[in-house]
Amino acid sequence: MTLSITRRSAAVFRAAMFRKAFPHPNATIIPGTTPAPGATPVPSTTTPPNTTALPSTTTARNAPTHRKPRRSGRGPQAGPRPTRPTGPLRRLLDMNLPYQLLTFAVLATCWELYAGVRGGLLLPGFAETVRATAGLLGEAELWRALYVSNQALVLGFALAVVVGVPLGTALGRFRLLERYADVHLNILLVTPMAALIPLLVMSVGVGTVSRVVLVALFSVVMVIVNSRAGVRQVDPALIEMARSFGAGERTVWARILLPAALPAVMTGVRLGLGRAVTGMVLVELLMVSDGIGGLILTYRGLLKAPQLYGTIAVILAEALLLGAAAHWAERRLARWTRPNPSRTRTARSQR
Amino acid sequence: MITIQGLSKSFTTRSGERVDALRDVSLDVGENEFLTVLGPSGCGKTTLLRAVAGLVPWDGGDIAVDGSPVRGPGPDRAVVFQNFALLPWATVLDNVAFGLRMRGVGRAERAERARSLIATVGLEGCEAKLPGELSGGMQQRVGIARALTVRPRVLLMDEPFGAVDEQTRRLLQEELLAIWEEHRMTVVFITHSMEEAVLLGDRVALMSARPGRIAEIVPVRLPRPRSRDVGGVARSGEYAEITAYLWERLRDMHAEHRPDRAHRPDEVAS
Amino acid sequence: MTAPTPVEHRPGGARRRPAAARLRRLPAAPVSLAAGAAAWEAVGRTADASALPPLSTVLDRLVEATRQGTIASSLADSLVNLALGLVISLAAGLLVGTAMGRWRRVDAALGVYVHALLAAPSLVFAPVFFSLLGAGRASIVAVVVTYAVFVVVVNTAAGVRSVPPHLVEMAHSYGASERQVLVRVVLPAAAPLIMAGVRLGVGRAVTGMINGEMFISVVGLGRLVTEAGGRFDSAGVLAVLLIVIAVALAALALVQAVDRTVTRWVPRTWKEER
Prior knowledge:
heterotrimer, A: 71% helix, disordered N terminus, B: Rossmann fold, disordered C terminus, AAA+_ATPase (chain B), transport (chain B)
């Protein structure tokens, strides 16, 4: 069983090898095919169960896949091309936003209708929830809860980065160490950290400390695993090149390994932040009724359903905002991994 | 057999530029003729082939095969792809039988016809292998066998030997000639190799780039069958002459994009 | 293509010393596990902290709980939750993912939301399910689905989208219908990415199962964790945790076995170094 999990990384890696299975340059037509170089170089090697670390997964979102709308159904049409509508309507149909708004409208309407029919104390309507959310934003209670929660988030996440990045890069560089740590890391990746909450509460009590530790536990594995993969996949030719110029281990680290691993490390940090937010909410929901999770439980206990839903919306908003910010930071810091399109094309056609 | 009349097609690049891939292309291919299409890269020869195959729409003009207009892929035409387009998860046998399967041919007949064509292209014993286990040359043999199983009247070959090495390419050329001499069908063969175009074709349609159009049709009066003595064909004066002439024309086309070479004195008479 | 190319051999680390060479020859995983277990036992005995009992105590507790039958019945409950959640996730995930990968407009309509929900802390939806579906199995299954389904959707969509267009075109050239293209070309070609998504989904589903059960706390292993935590029975918590890890590993091994047969054709250019 341990064997199988060590192989998991290999199996997941095959996803990255996917394009090797189709080694032909037609791939240029669809930007989403190959993991755009470096978009998420790493996660493929080590895909933890709780992320979408798959290269193409993330790529699918990073690289805008504005392909020509595939003529769906009935195979391709040949013959003289039918005249297609052009102008504003066409452009509107080619954009994403109208569809997104449509989906939102449909969901909101369904929610409202369902709540109208089946609604009760525990199921507020959409409009009611929106109103309650707006109201919540004006209340000190919410902001205090957010402050308490985010304190744990910031401290725990910082701890995870400070511990995880050095540990991960070391594991990536020193093979022997990595060999022995691997099985433990793989187990940690599948361990539901939430089950550790009772132990934490027993040892450090129901305070900020236990929340900080849990947040750190949630995110550190992701940081380690991605940092490790980042160092591990540095092209050995680059290291040889540096050595041929007389670089020592220190210079290799500073000039080659760390810069080359940076995009992967950033990916780990981004994914780790996502997990940290999860950990923050989780610990408050499950054991330590404080902060924003505690607020959810309070509203549930008071049967204040609109406020309950509003709080959930606030948490989702925070998770998305933090995710977007991390994404932005990742792109800024690892800009060299996004090659300009023309260069990619030549590189691909040479393959 | 194939009539192409005033075919034109343009597309818009990502930067919004409009490019004429084909402009007013007219071409007739006779019954059982082996026509090679030669041109610089980007001249639209592949687009032309895909249009005949019914795989892409076009802007204007008509294509008819045996008098009936092309409106999509049809059982009368089969394509051999440059990059083989084999299903990597399917065995050689399943790959060869793919076309038949799409046409609803029963399992037993599928296997029988596929096996006989696998033998024709010299891949006996590889039926259970996956494409990934084959060399490029062998993969393209699978591609050819797959196209032949559906007994097409027209075989459309899109730079089929472009992705294999020189030696394999020569072997494949000989084998293709042998197969064609035996089975006789209409072939449209895209290539960027002058030697290949002359060695295989009855006529060479020379295309120019941007806009893509037929610049000239050069007849090749080398004797057939050629598969018996490919070496002899390649040593003949006619072969050398046509290849040299094609290169002249192609060099002129390239020179149009190199102004420094454009006013080179026309020293060679053809 | 620079970055994602797999590196065949790792940059050579420290210079080889005889001791290191000897360590290198040992089978790493079992040795490392044994060392970890020994360390746990030693730390547990010396620290004598209530939160970290030695491994032997945990194992004793595990045997005891198994004898009483609490483990078996809870495990069965949990597995049912997991299985139901996974079946729903896979069915919905494959369906929606294929639609998103195949049709741009479906992708435009749903993509943003799927990605958002994938990134969100899934357990916040537990109170919603709780109020909609009541405090029972349905809520737990719903939590499992929220954990697992989105990653399956996203990967399926990515897989379907990345099918080489020349294969689809080839199928069309033989007159394949849209259904034939889907069944004979698109889904097999997308299988490696789909399976990767399923694997991630299974991992997330196990987490969702435990978290959901801890939150709703009526059935399953998660309830055992909560109860043991309430009694300050740390050995009990860890004993259940061992079971959960075993469940996760077993589920992953199962997926892997399926994956190996489904994606046998993918060339093994990258070999495991271990």
